[in-house]
Amino acid sequence: MKLRTLRASMPLCGKRVLMRIDANVPIKKGKAVDGPQGRIARSAVDIDWLMQRGARIIIMTHLGRPEGKFVSAYSVAPVAKRLSELLKTKVKTVRGIVDEKAQKAVTRLENGEVLLLENIRFHPLEKKDDPGFAKQLAALGDLYINDAFAVCHRPQTSVHAITKEIPSYAGPLLAQEVTILTKAMQHPRAPFVLVVGGVKMETKLPVIQRLLPRVSTVLVGGALAHAFLKAKGMEIGRSVYDKEGVAQAAQMLKEAGKKIILPEDVVVVSSLRKDAAKRVVGITEVEPKDRIVDIGPKTIERFLTLIREARTIVWNGPLGYCEIKPFAKGTFEIAEAIAKRTGKALTIVGGGDTGPVIEEGGFTDQYTLLSTGGGAMLTFLSGESMPPIDALEI
């Protein structure tokens, strides 16, 4: 898949560039939580490139789920502050999207300046992929750049309908993700190891099915593994699992049982407190009152052995209850092992829940691709149509 991208020789000075980024990061005490390789930080690199060429940049992003109405807690002001720090210049803001205030703010922009529109999801028509709203957005710019891969699995106005109204291009972040993910799908080097965790079977199953003919092994952990264990008739105690996914897991085990590697031992607790007493037990020794919160040491070692031999690695989803640090050991060790394979292997990592572990370990810049989108990555790898990306194809 080849996408339309901006050429370095394209004259941008004085052009109004409408750019969609994904700055949907946690906001704590009024501050955007965004590390050196965070979503905003990575977008800032591409925004700076446009600034250096004298473009007048109008940024669109969403934050949280305001459901089409103004919610002060989801204002993008903290995003503007973070961008200002990164770009070393004041990013202007406006409390509007396509209204008269926004239009005037765009008119006042000078070459090299940046304006951040208010949360695009404050507008009730954003999620409706609305042609009328798309025309209003397009009127703000001379050209449009989509650099928000993480929201491209859903056709919404600011990533899809808008492409029909204005010359549109893929941003560097989006283009990079598509290129590397396509390589993993079409030309993976063997051994190809797929590592999957998290909870929902419905999002992971299509990826496993699509990649199964190409992968050497599928390493399954986290709550996803609990559904597979349940399908085998094993005791998982009070552990979280996708009840509706058990039948699908059973069918998958029939189709590709030899390729799917499940935990052989696990860490269990009686409560989800960080100071709860932990026990390592074999997978046949889980008791009815236990909660599985991590993969055990034998499982970690088996997974590591396969990862250390891999030439292509794709990982999505935590392998334990990693929101609580004492239960993140398996996820941390897998994150580190995959990082160490980069260079010798194509390494692709995605899934928002693994982010804090990856950041704490200092692994954020140590993968071939740290995907900005968990859901979008899964959709792309599963082969489903992604209209916002299809619209940018050459």
List keywords for this structure.
394 residues; alpha/beta; Rossmann fold; six-stranded parallel sheet; 13 helices; 17 strands; elongated
Largest sheet: 6 strands, parallel
Please give the domain count: 2
Q: What's the number of helices? A: 13
CATH homologous superfamily of the largest domain - what is it?
Answer: Phosphoglycerate kinase, N-terminal domain
Instruction: Please mark out the parts with pLDDT under 50 across 5 or more consecutive residues, or reply none.
Output: none
In total, how many beta strands? Answer: 17
Structural class determined from secondary elements = alpha/beta
Q: Architecture of the largest domain, CATH level 2?
A: 3-Layer(aba) Sandwich
CATH topology of the largest domain: Rossmann fold
Beta content: 15-25%
Q: Note the overall shape.
A: elongated
Mean pLDDT: 94
Strand order of the largest sheet: 5-6-4-1-7-8
Q: At the first level of CATH, what is the class of the largest domain?
A: Alpha Beta
Encode the helix/strand succession as letters: EEEHEHEHEHEEHEHEHHEEEEHEHEHEHH
Radius of gyration using CA atoms only: 22 Å
What percent of the residues sit in helical stretches (DSSP H or I)?
25-40%
The first-to-last residue Cα distance is: 8 Å
